[in-house]
Amino acid sequence: MISRVARLIFIIVCVTVSSWLFVHAEPPTPREYMIKAGFLYNFAKFVEWPKEVFKNTTAPLIIGIYGKDLFGSSFDQTIKAKSVQGRGLLIKRFKTLDELTVCHILFINPSEKEHFSEIMNKLMGSHVLTVSETERFAERGGIINFIKEGNNVRFEINLDTAEKNGLKISSRLLKLAKIIREKG
Amino acid sequence: MRTVHQKNNFIFSQLVFLLIAGVVLFFYPVPAIAEDYEDYLELDLEALMNIEVVSASRMAQKISEAPNAIYVITAEDIRRSGAVDLPDLFRGVPGLNVISMYGNSFGISGRGLNSAFGRGGLQVMIDGRSLFSSFFGGTFWENEEIFMEDIKQIEVISGTGATIWGGNAVSGVINIITKDPEEDQGIMISGKAGTKHLCGTVASYADTIDKLSFRLTGGYWEDEGFRGVHDYRRIPKTTAKVKYKLSNNSVVYFSGGINRAQIGLDLTQFTKRTGSDFRSHYQMLRWEHEFSQDSQLILQTYHSTFQINSYDKEVRVREKKIVIDMQHSFKLGDRHKAVWGFDYQRLGVDSKMLAPVSPDDDVVEFFVQDEVKIFDNVSIIGGVRATKTHRRNWGLSSRFCLLYSPHDNHQFRFAYSRAYKTPSFGAQYMHLKPFPFVITKGDRDLSTEQMTSFELGYRTSFFHKVGLNVELYYNRFERALGVPVTSFFPVVIEWDNYYDIDLKGIEVSFDYPVTNWWMLKANYAYQGSDQKNTPKHKFSLSSRFTFKNGILLDVKTYYVDDTDWGDTEIDDYTRLDVRIAKKFFNGKVELSVVGQNVSDKYHSESVVVGDTANRVERTVYGQVTLWFR
């Protein structure tokens, strides 16, 4: 009896060990973040920035990631091949407020919750589409907030903040979003 | 007598299905589920909205900080398992022993114990409402008051949860949490049909209007149970859960349900077949208030009733419970996380099966627990619970736990606890003649049962993928209540605290996302005790496949060692459950086929009336589910 169980445990260990041989140094991006990356790409497609934000018609659209990276390096490689309205796409990563430079979409890691107000202050008047995935982000100055509905990813959009930042959001995006309006 | 057939069944059955999975993968056309960045960046908005995030994270934060051995079953696990009865979900939990008796009845026990009535005390709760029947001293799994579709997750706590959850949690706690009315909104309709003449429909509607959200679920289930045994079920039931946001930090929940089951009881050995009515209903009100981020209060009260009336008029029980629970959790500075509260229960039992004097029973309990962070990676948790029942003095249960994380990914837990379980109402006052020639007698002077336990646990995850959990325990269960037979004709069974039991064991759980589309989980439990009817070894292996072409396949294998029930021995068995499903129309419709006990025409799990081993049969059913969101 014991030997039968031991045999099974042995098989599982073998399967496990052989799979470990193929493990990359970087942990694989969980599906949830690949989905969110897909959304970020779509936000780039369906949001209009004021013309002066881009140096010329071929300047790249920059997606910034603030805080610990949840998307992985594969995001950079695959996005390089894409384009939006004739512009290429670039990913930039920032760990501190000082490092923050020009970008058009900024995804803020929810672990940076404490720095939200500082970040918003620095971005004031700069036409950046801020995105995160924390409770009430869209009510605290953020523009788009990812939420989960059961096992699906959804998003909330604060239209007022978007307008204040000079951003025009296509109806294609709006009709799928949960709209948050500023409370008087 | 072990058969060669069964010996090879275990590994063989998994391998066969892995092979079938491979074939299905090969021949079925066209990708529908993306697997890398390239694919996700190709999807349009609507498609992205429809993809399900199959979360590999089991709420890691919460579990690794828990001062108990917890096993979590998520809504996804429930859906993918194809289980129609709650007990079937627990077969894969290392710290629980599940036996099917008839097609409509189950016995679930905690570590080291295995019986028809959950001896040793397993507290089962739905949203904090106890399902424990004080009369029978166990939970009536026949009376399922909940819809599987409404469950958000189930937390199984192995080991003594007595300090927080009360005296009935001596062997563990099963905490069933239902979905919030704000989750999973819209309409859901599903229908099932299959062998055993089974057919079931469930419809659920959840919506939000301003500050009010609700979920209404109703359904009907019927099946004929096992062949040759009179164990049918006809269960219409309905539940409602309403949530109202009083303010930004205050929420009120109301939930209620009605169940009017009709269940067959097979007494062919002694008398004619009969059936009985199980009716139950409950109403519960719960208030959650957040004073601040560091201080929360929960106050709840509920009333629940259940009645059993057999058609031959022999069995008649009516149990009514009114409970008030209060719990306040707060943080003190950076280092203390405390919780304290009280519980009051008033129980009324009415039955012709009780001795003439059977008072209503009151139970009052106070508890307090504090978690102190001594160093950054060391915490100590201490808790105490005082219980006073009507006829007895105050009893004190306590628990002490040490948590140590030498490194981010590793956590050790050591716990010691001492819990008391007062004898159930039935054990004290029952005077029952369930069949002619059989008498069961209670005893008012029974002592409390006492469980002293030592636990050592280790949890880790490596390579950010693999989860491993190891538990060791030694429980000493003293003055355990049992029902030894004291005379043979008529058969007299008299409740008595007549023995001490030593339970020791090891549990190992392991989960591993082998690839993006194959999730593997395995559990093993070794149960060493002098209880001959507890299987020494228990194993379960589960593979979950989410293929590129949209096919969802779940294969679960269980192995349970042989058990000795006195006059009858039950062979070890292997059980194979399979589910295949596919979604259509952008996730709005799902078709699935489920097979339970597929590998064998039947096997035995327990001994039933007449000392015969039961026959748990193969079941197959198909299901259609529609969602309108």
Number of helices of chain A: 6
What do the pLDDT scores of chain B average to?
81
Derived structural class of chain B: mainly beta
Distance between the termini of chain B: 54 Å
CATH class of chain B: Mainly Beta
For this structure, the CATH topology of chain A is: Rossmann fold
Helix content of chain A: 25-40%
Structure description:
- The complex is a heterodimer of chains A (184) and B (629).
- In chain A, 33% of the residues lie in helices and 24% in strands.
- Chain A has 184 residues and is α/β, with parallel strands linked by helices.
- Chain A has a single domain (28-180), classed as Rossmann fold (3-Layer(aba) Sandwich), CATH 3.40.50.
- In chain A, the strands form two sheets. An eight-stranded mixed β-sheet of chain A has the order 3-4-2-5-6-7-8-10. Chain A has a two-stranded antiparallel ribbon with strand order 1-9.
- Chain B has 629 residues and is mainly beta.
- Chain B has a single domain (4-628), classed as TonB-dependent receptor, beta-barrel domain (Maltoporin, Chain A, Beta Barrel), CATH 2.40.170.20.
- Chain B contains eight helices and 41 strands.
- In chain B, the strands form eight sheets. Chain B has a 22-stranded antiparallel beta barrel. Chain B has a five-stranded mixed β-sheet with strand order 1-8-9-4-5.
- In chain B, strand 33 and strand 34 form a beta hairpin.
- Chain B starts with a helix and ends with a strand.
- The interface between A and B is large, with 44 and 47 residues.
Explain briefly what this protein structure is.
The complex is a heterodimer of chains A (about 180) and B (about 625). Helix content of chain A is about 35%, strand content about 25%.
Helices and strands, with pairings:
The complex is a heterodimer of chains A (184) and B (629).
Chain A: H1 2-20, H2 31-46, E1 47-48, E2 61-66, H3 73-80, E3 83-84, E4 87-94, E5 105-108, H4 116-123, E6 129-132, E7 144-149, E8 152-158, H5 159-164, E9 168-169, H6 171-174, E10 178-180
Parallel strand pairs in A: 2-4, 2-5, 5-6, 6-7, 8-10
Antiparallel strand pairs in A: 1-9, 3-4, 7-8
Chain B: H1 4-27, H2 37-42, H3 45-50, H4 60-64, E1 69-74, H5 75-81, H6 86-89, E2 97-100, E3 106-109, E4 123-126, E5 129-130, E6 132-133, E7 138-139, E8 151-158, H7 162-165, E9 172-178, E10 186-194, E11 198-209, E12 212-223, E13 233-247, E14 250-265, E15 274-292, E16 295-310, E17 316-332, E18 336-351, E19 361-375, E20 378-389, E21 395-407, E22 410-421, H8 425-429, E23 431-432, E24 438-441, E25 449-462, E26 466-482, E27 485-488, E28 491-494, E29 496-515, E30 518-529, E31 537-546, E32 551-560, E33 563-564, E34 569-570, E35 573-584, E36 589-596, E37 602-603, E38 607-608, E39 612-613, E40 616-617, E41 619-628
Parallel strand pairs in B: 4-9, 24-28
Antiparallel strand pairs in B: 1-8, 2-3, 4-5, 6-7, 8-9, 10-11, 10-41, 11-12, 12-13, 13-14, 14-15, 15-16, 16-17, 17-18, 18-19, 19-20, 20-21, 21-22, 22-25, 23-24, 25-26, 26-29, 27-28, 29-30, 30-31, 31-32, 32-35, 33-34, 35-36, 36-41, 37-40, 38-39
